[in-house]
Amino acid sequence: MQALKSQILEILSADCRIPLERIAIMTGAELSQVAQAIDEMEKDRVILQYSPIINWDRTPRERVEAMIEVKVTPQRDMGFDAIAGRIYRFDEVKSVFLMSGSYDLLVLVEARTLKDLALFVSEKLSTLESVTGTSTSFVLKRYKQDGVIFVGETTDKRLAVSP
Amino acid sequence: MSERFINPRVAAVPPSGIRRFFDVAGTMKDAISLGVGEPDFVTPYHIRSSAIDSLLDGETQYTPNRGLLSLRQEIAEYLATRYHVSYDPEKEILVTVGASEAIDLALRACLRPGDEVILPDPGYVSYAPCVTFAQGTPVPVPTLAEDEFRLTAANLEKAITEKTRALIFPYPNNPTGAVMTREEMTKIAALAEKHDLLVISDEIYSELTYSGEKIAFSSLLGMRERTILINGFSKAFAMTGWRLGYACGPREILYEMNKIHQYAIMCAPRQAQVAGFEALKKNRENGFEDVEMMRRSYDRRRRVMVDALRKMGLDCFEPRGAFYCFPSIRRTGLTSEEFCTRLLREYKVVCVPGDAFGQSGAGHIRCCYATDLNRMLEAFSRMEKFIQSL
């Protein structure tokens, strides 16, 4: 079952719209086994969501993103979890990671305009009690995300027929 | 005008049957090709990067004729751990310009004029012409769908005469995807022994074996001294354009092969050798991550293709190696050539007629599943429409 699950994860991470029947064919497993494996992984929160990777730059939507390095004072008994929880609940916050190194939390934030984002940092994030410092860097261009390259085009360079 | 200069032996060999198709397909823009014979992966980045570093470091010189010793040592280690055969990197391994050169060298070093060489039919397009160029006579032995395209000992024995010098043993097979079992290989080995045949074992697709064990022919009892093992980097590491292969075998034979290689080629390109070294070393260290990742991906697409071809109503033997399906198109009433030509003209899908790989391939087509899944699915839907239109 574990081998089947890793196969399924590999297949879904390349294309999560693939029909169950095709996964069954690809893995040589029974349809019911595939369905069960996916169910289990959803229940175990191995699979959290099925979402596409979107290149927003190619859409009309206005959008700015920033990565914010946040220094915080960990709380007694809670460590970083409590403050992380305060931060990740904001809608603007897309990702939060606890980091090793010179700061504590890496926060990925998205807003409609630069001004909105600046307000978020100055009014919502910096004012949290345990936050002792922030350093904001804006995303200028996205080259690759989640294993997908955003720039340029990949063409098949092979000959159409070869022995 | 200048025909009088040409060797009639060469002129008599027809160009590859695949080539004609290529010319038509090349002019069509939105054609989907299932006619390729190479991986759809690009060589893994760390391998490409090692070749770039080597260039930047000014490694632009010849290498030893037999190839960089470091590469030959990695090849020896690879064959020992993965195939349980041991070859001396100094005397028993020769790095070549693709496995193709190794096949040519083996034939040229061993054949005497008029020697017969047995080759399973259908088979890779180069074997018979290379035998002819080396002044031998190719003797095709049919392999059949009902035998899962394996070379049977019975059919092999029927083809053996006192002129038979060698057997080309190409498994996993291009174009059929057939893989031999240990039991059948043992029978072939017994015949090789009985009739004192040289076995040229082309194992280029060996890493792409999806069920059953991977067996090097030379690992069979008594076979090492009569076997030339040929392999390369093209299929396992997606390195076709680098042109890097190797031959391993008894030192007396390798000595002669190296002589031809030394005078005709000098050495395989240095950067390809550096890249090959990186491919083997890194994969030895990481449990063959690159190879396994690609193999899993082909395996999934293999199942999808077999399923789709069968649903179209074509008889399709389940391939167990390489990256081709070889379905029969007999029930359409068309010849392979007609089927492929019309499929390309009317529905813009490229497949290769089975008889390009020998007469026994007639009535079949070769479809390559080293193709993007979604493009492959689109190709199947076009093929289905084509078959229904007949």
Please name the defining characteristics of this protein:
heterodimer; A: 163 residues; alpha+beta; Arc Repressor Mutant, subunit A; Alpha-Beta Plaits; 2 domains; four-stranded antiparallel sheet; two-stranded antiparallel ribbon; 21% strand; B: 390 residues; alpha/beta; Aspartate Aminotransferase, domain 1; Aspartate Aminotransferase, domain 2; seven-stranded mixed sheet; three-stranded antiparallel sheet; 13 helices; 12 strands; 42% helix; 13% strand
Question: What is the topological layout?
Answer:
The complex is a heterodimer of chains A (163) and B (390).
Chain A: H1 2-14, H2 20-27, H3 31-43, E1 64-72, H4 81-88, E2 93-98, E3 105-111, H5 114-125, E4 131-138, E5 144-145, E6 148-149
Chain B: H1 8-11, H2 17-26, E1 32-33, H3 45-56, H4 69-83, E2 93-96, H5 98-110, E3 116-121, H6 127-133, E4 137-142, H7 153-159, E5 164-169, H8 182-194, E6 198-202, E7 227-232, E8 245-248, H9 251-264, H10 270-285, H11 289-311, E9 324-325, H12 336-347, E10 349-350, E11 352-353, E12 365-368, H13 373-389
Helix pairs in contact in B: 3-10, 4-10, 5-6, 5-9, 11-13
A few lines on this structure:
The complex is a heterodimer of chains A (163) and B (390). Chain A is an alpha+beta fold and 163 residues long. Chain A is built from five helices and six strands.
Model description:
The complex is a heterodimer of chains A (163) and B (390). Chain A starts with a helix and ends in a 14-residue tail after the last strand. Chain A has 163 residues and is an alpha+beta fold. In chain A, a hairpin with a 2-residue loop joins β5 (144-145) and β6. Chain A contains 5 helices and 6 strands; from the N terminus they run αααβαββαβββ. Chain B is 42% helix and 13% strand. Chain B has 13 helices and 12 strands. Chain B folds into 2 domains: 3-43 and 289-389, Aspartate Aminotransferase, domain 1; 45-285, Type I PLP-dependent aspartate aminotransferase-like (Major domain) (Aspartate Aminotransferase, domain 2), CATH 3.40.640. In chain B, the strands form 3 sheets. In chain B, strands 2-8-7-6-5-3-4 form a 7-stranded mixed beta sheet, with helices on both faces. Chains A and B meet through α1 and α2 of A and α2 and α11 of B.
